[in-house]
């Protein structure tokens, strides 16, 4: 046995310690070890004899090496502005009881690493480690728990295999690139003083880093590269990485063609309507796309989707796009994801990364089935400031990147003034991602040459920092100096390059034709009548066959007994044509199955969607004996496309963002997200406002995401009742979405099929308020005929009242669950003078379907809107003007419901029941001529309100 050959680092130390124990007491070690040591000579080859006192020094040396590998980044010079690194006592030899002299006497092999061949002793090995771990790169991978990955990262860092000279770079090309980047900013600064551009200066190396990653990705034949990026440096990246023409960017700066009067390519009437709603967006959030074509490799598309100002919000969207691009759904069964098809790159701000919760939500998606993209390369564009805020006020962590540690993402912190270190980081990131298909993070530490934007004076808040920045050479100047020192170029060359770039930009500006050069994405008008022409009925025989397929489980599969009974019930659901035996979940399954049979793939996600939050769906069965899962929609013989169903993690914001991304990337697939309860959708308000509702008007995107939001007042309290319908209605304008609140299984069936049929022809997001307890209510069930012959009805009139229209005095209009409360009331039979009509599609407002209803009751005296939501919520406020316009003064239009309230509903079920009862009674009270709006408010309500007032304020101290 040779100690230094057979054992390394800590292992050698352990063997020595064991040997020492054996020496003092042979019985203190086990028999096998005793036998080995009996044959072993302590004076090992190539190493000094191990005497007892030396062991402490060996332990010290090994611990020092370990500390440098783990904490060396704390001594790295990462700040280009020269602030001293925090350091760490564990990096000092004395902490471990060794001196330089001790280290010199110890063999290099004790430290271990690819560099040991080149060094003479442990001291030189430690120096080599310091040069690696505490230079201008800080490798931060100690938190990785997979030993193989940790070892790979260690070897990658210590071998220098991604860094010149082992992996050379082209210094001239780099200088030219940095010149381009800097000249662009200089030029804009000079020509458009004070105009906001969010200059990249101080983090210029982002562009060469992206070049490197994209180049590697193209060589690896990654087809789709998606870059998510906030405002900082975006214009520069658009110009130089996405090749957005300078002319287009300069035209945007000139802002001459806003106020257009025509949109090209569509007829004038449709164009006028669109133009009115077309808002466009600011230049530093616009997207772009670039296809790398010709030569090898072919067909690489680099795109940067547009994003809103809300920092970080676009990143789950980008992840969703990358996932969808890499997923094949054209075959039945589960979708097939290929992690080598796309690469997401996300560029974060150093304040935004730790500050915005959506970042953690997005990182949490990274390794989950149904969300895993094959690894994202993250870059923190770390300019050490967030607007005017210093890091000490912006985060509770040392590094801006520390959040990533919890997700076991390897991190390199790198000084943005060292181009070679930056390029190494990019190569390392890509190689790790390729090898392990996991995320990697580059914390690129630079500075910000100007204020947050170019109109700000940063000296108000960071006077000392900006004193340094003013004197600080740019990375281009620093690199040029390095090249001159290395004798690669002569001294005048960098200046010449700069002049050339500035002149080129000047020429573009002088030959600008803003009306031609300004290219904005234009929303397309759907073909007229597309939505009306869709047929959603499915022949009864086809439905029966689909149903039979869905009820089949594999041979020997043991279902849960309760599920078995439910399946038995389902078996007869389609037995007759007219019996209403089809419940909500069965209708949904039939809709999905028929859509798959039509060749349209489906993706359904959300919390616990596989079973369904209310135990209604059971899209995935679990064998009671083996635990094996079986998904009938993935085994459907009739299917021509894939069905995906994934329980999502407990997020709404990133989850909806991700689905939005899937949807806009692959609009031909039906993408559905379901909330556990509708209330929780407000956790994703940013996604709703910024993407779902307005992306069409801002960026010309055409989303068609479906959101299923359980909604309805059932006494569950303020937080399990409302899907905040009012917020969706408030955002609805210019036909930007469809909002439905359906009351029957057949309506839901037709609505889903309608949406699927319109994905290409007339795509719009669809918001569906779905039932909870009513999922199993007999009144929501439908017959086979309803599915086989019907269609989605935006308005459902009162069939009973229609038989004797002349008796009707009051027309109640309502939507959703309250309809069931109204028609199941004992008052219904006693009050033939009241007709109850449901509005099933709330937006676009179905005026054409409602008009004939209003016209068919000859003795009508009043119209009332009845809702269970408080007056300031629900549909009333948005619908009132539409109803008013239709009624046009012919009858009074009144509101019957709860008064305005800050909370959606009562906190107790008894209280809820009282109010709900009162509400129904008011609705049926024909004696009270409704002269004004009726606010139900039982005495109890007021008593409780009064009692509650101020109760929860803290008592004052003392
Ligand atoms: C969600 C959100 N909150 C606030 C802002 C306003 N805002 C824009 S940039 C910025 C500072 C961002 O700092 P950092 O993440 O470090 O990026 P930098 O601008 O320094 O590149 C703030 C607060 C925003 N755009 N989005």
In angstroms, what separates the terminal alpha carbons?
76 Å
Overall pLDDT, averaged?
90
Shape, please? globular
Radius of gyration: 34 Å
What does this structure look like?
This protein has 958 residues and is of the alpha/beta class. 40% of the residues lie in helices and 12% in strands. The strands form five sheets. The protein has an eight-stranded mixed beta sheet. Strands 14-11-15-16-18-17-22 form a seven-stranded mixed beta sheet, sandwiched between helices. α37 (909-924) links the parallel β24 (892-897) and β25 (934-935). Bound molecules: thiamine diphosphate. Residues 232, 309-311, 349-352, 381, 383, 385-387, 452 line the site of thiamine diphosphate. Thiamine diphosphate (TPP) binds next to loops.
List keywords for this structure.
958 residues; alpha/beta; eight-stranded mixed β-sheet; seven-stranded mixed β-sheet; binds thiamine diphosphate
Give the helix/strand layout.
Blueprint: H1 3-6, H2 9-24, H3 31-38, H4 52-71, H5 100-105, H6 122-133, E1 137-140, H7 147-159, H8 171-191, H9 206-219, E2 224-229, H10 234-240, H11 246-254, H12 268-277, E3 288-292, E4 300-304, H13 315-325, E5 327-328, E6 336-337, E7 342-349, H14 352-355, H15 357-365, E8 377-382, H16 391-394, E9 411-415, H17 419-436, E10 440-445, H18 463-471, H19 475-485, H20 493-510, H21 514-517, H22 530-533, H23 540-550, H24 561-571, H25 584-597, E11 602-606, E12 621-622, E13 629-630, E14 643-647, H26 653-665, E15 670-674, H27 685-693, H28 695-699, E16 706-710, H29 725-731, E17 738-741, H30 745-757, E18 766-770, H31 784-789, E19 795-796, H32 799-802, E20 810-814, H33 818-823, H34 827-830, E21 834-839, E22 841-843, H35 847-855, E23 862-866, H36 876-887, E24 892-897, H37 909-924, E25 934-935, H38 939-948
Parallel strand pairs: 2-4, 2-7, 7-8, 8-10, 9-10, 11-14, 11-15, 15-16, 16-18, 17-18, 20-21, 20-23, 23-24, 24-25
Antiparallel strand pairs: 1-9, 3-4, 5-6, 12-13, 17-22, 19-21
Helix pairs in contact: 2-4, 4-6, 8-19, 8-20, 9-17, 13-26, 15-26, 23-25, 25-30, 26-27, 35-36
The site of thiamine diphosphate has 14 residues, from loops.
């Amino acid at each position: 046995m040779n100690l230094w050959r057979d054992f390394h680092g800590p292992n050698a130390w352990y063997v020595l310690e064991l040997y020492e124990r054996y020496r003092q007491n042979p019985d203190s070690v086990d028999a096998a070890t005793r036998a080995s040591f009996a044959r072993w000579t302590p004076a090992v080859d190539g190493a000094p004899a191990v005497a007892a006192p030396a062991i402490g020094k060996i332990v010290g040396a090994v611990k020092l090496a370990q500390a440098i590998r783990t904490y060396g980044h704390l001594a790295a010079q990462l700040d280009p502005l020269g602030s001293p690194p925090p350091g760490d006592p564990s990096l000092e030899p004395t902490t471990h009881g060794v001196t330089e002299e001790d280290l010199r006497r110890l063999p290099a092999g004790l430290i271990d690493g690819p560099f040991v061949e080149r060094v003479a002793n442990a001291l030189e090995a430690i120096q080599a480690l310091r040069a690696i771990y505490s230079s201008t790169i800080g490798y931060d991978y100690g938190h990785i728990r997979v030993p193989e990955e940790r070892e790979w990262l260690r070897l990658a860092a210590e071998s220098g295999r991604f860094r010149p000279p082992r992996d050379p770079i082209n210094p001239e090309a780099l200088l030219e690139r940095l010149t381009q980047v800097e000249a662009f900013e200089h030029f804009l600064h000079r020509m458009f003083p004070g105009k906001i551009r969010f200059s990249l200066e101080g983090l210029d190396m982002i562009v060469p880093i992206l070049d490197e990653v994209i180049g590697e990705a193209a060589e690896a034949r990654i087809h789709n590269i998606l870059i998510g990026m906030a405002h900082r440096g975006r214009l520069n990246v658009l110009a130089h990485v996405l090749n957005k023409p300078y002319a287009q960017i300069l035209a945007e700066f000139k802002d001459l063609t806003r106020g257009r009067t025509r949109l090209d390519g569509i007829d004038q009437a449709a164009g006028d309507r669109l133009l009115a709603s077309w808002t466009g967006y600011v230049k530093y959030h616009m997207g772009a796309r670039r296809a790398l074509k010709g030569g090898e490799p072919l067909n690489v598309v680099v795109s940067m989707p547009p994003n809103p100002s809300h920092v970080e919000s676009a990143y789950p969207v980008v992840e969703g796009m990358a996932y969808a691009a890499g997923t094949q759904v054209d075959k039945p069964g589960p979708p097939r994801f290929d992690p080598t098809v796309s690469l997401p790159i996300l560029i974060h701000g150093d304040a935004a990364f730790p500050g915005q919760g959506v970042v953690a939500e997005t990182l949490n998606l990274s390794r989950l089935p149904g969300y895993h993209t094959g690894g994202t390369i993250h870059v923190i564009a770390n300019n050490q400031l967030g607007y005017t805020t210093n890091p000490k006020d912006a985060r509770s962590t040392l590094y801006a990147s520390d959040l990533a540690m919890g997700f076991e993402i390897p991190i390199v912190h790198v000084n943005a003034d060292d181009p070679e270190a930056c390029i190494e980081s990019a190569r390392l990131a890509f190689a790790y991602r390729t090898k392990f298909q996991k995320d990697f993070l580059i914390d690129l530490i630079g500075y910000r040459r100007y204020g947050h934007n170019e109109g700000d004076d940063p000296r108000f808040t960071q006077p000392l920092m900006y004193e340094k920045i003013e004197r600080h050479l740019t990375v281009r100047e620093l690199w040029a100096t390095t090249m001159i020192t290395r004798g690669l170029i002569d001294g005048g060359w960098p200046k010449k390059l700069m002049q050339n770039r500035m002149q080129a930009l000047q020429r573009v500006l002088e030959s600008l034709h803003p009306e031609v050069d300004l290219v904005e994405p234009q929303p397309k008008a759907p073909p007229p009548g597309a939505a009306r022409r869709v047929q959603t009925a499915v022949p009864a025989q086809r439905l029966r066959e689909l149903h039979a397929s869905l009820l089949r489980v594999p041979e020997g599969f043991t279902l849960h007994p309760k599920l078995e009974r439910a399946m038995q019930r389902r078996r007869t659901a389609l037995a007759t044509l007219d019996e209403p035996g089809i419940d909500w979940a069965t209708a949904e399954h039939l809709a999905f199955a028929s859509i798959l049979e039509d060749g349209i793939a489906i993706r359904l996600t959300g919390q616990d969607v596989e079973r369904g939050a209310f135990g209604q769906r059971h899209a995935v069965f679990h064998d009671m004996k083996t635990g094996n899962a079986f998904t009938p929609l993935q085994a459907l013989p009739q299917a021509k496309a894939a069905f995906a169903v994934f329980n999502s993690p407990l997020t709404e914001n990133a989850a909806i963002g991700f689905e939005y991304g899937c949807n806009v990337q692959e609009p031909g697939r039906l993408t559905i997200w379901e909330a556990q309860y509708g209330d929780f959708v407000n956790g994703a308000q940013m996604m709703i406002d910024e993407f779902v509702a307005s992306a069409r008007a801002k960026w010309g995107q055409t989303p068609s995401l479906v959101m299923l939001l359980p909604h309805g007042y059932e006494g569950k309290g303020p937080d399990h009742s409302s899907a905040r319908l009012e917020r969706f209605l408030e955002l609805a304008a210019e036909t930007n979405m469809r909002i439905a609140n359906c009351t029957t299984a057949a309506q839901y069936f037709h609505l889903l099929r309608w949406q699927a049929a319109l994905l290409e022809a007339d795509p719009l997001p669809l918001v569906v308020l779905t039932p909870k307890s009513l999922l199993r209510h007999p009144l929501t069930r439908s017959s086979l005929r309803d599915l086989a012959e019907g269609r989605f009805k935006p308005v459902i009139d009162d069939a009973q009242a229609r038989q004797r229209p002349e008796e009707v005095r009051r027309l109640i209009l309502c939507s959703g669950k309250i309809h069931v409360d109204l028609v199941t009331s004992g008052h219904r039979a006693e009050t033939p003078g009241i007709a109850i009509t449901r509005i099933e599609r709330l937006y676009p407002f179905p005026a054409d379907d409602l008009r004939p209803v209003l016209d068919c009751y000859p003795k009508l005296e009043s119209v009332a809107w009845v809702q269970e939501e408080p007056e300031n919520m629900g549909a009333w406020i948005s619908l009132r003007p539409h109803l008013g316009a239709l009624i046009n003064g012919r009858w009074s239009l009144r509101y019957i419901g709860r008064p305005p309230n800050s909370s959606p509903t009562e906190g107790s079920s008894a209280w809820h029941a009282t109010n709900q009862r009162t509400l129904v009674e008011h609705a049926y009270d024909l004696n009270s001529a409704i002269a004004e709006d009726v606010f139900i408010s039982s005495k109890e309500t007021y008593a409780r309100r009064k009692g509650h007032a101020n109760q929860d304020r803290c008592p004052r101290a003392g």
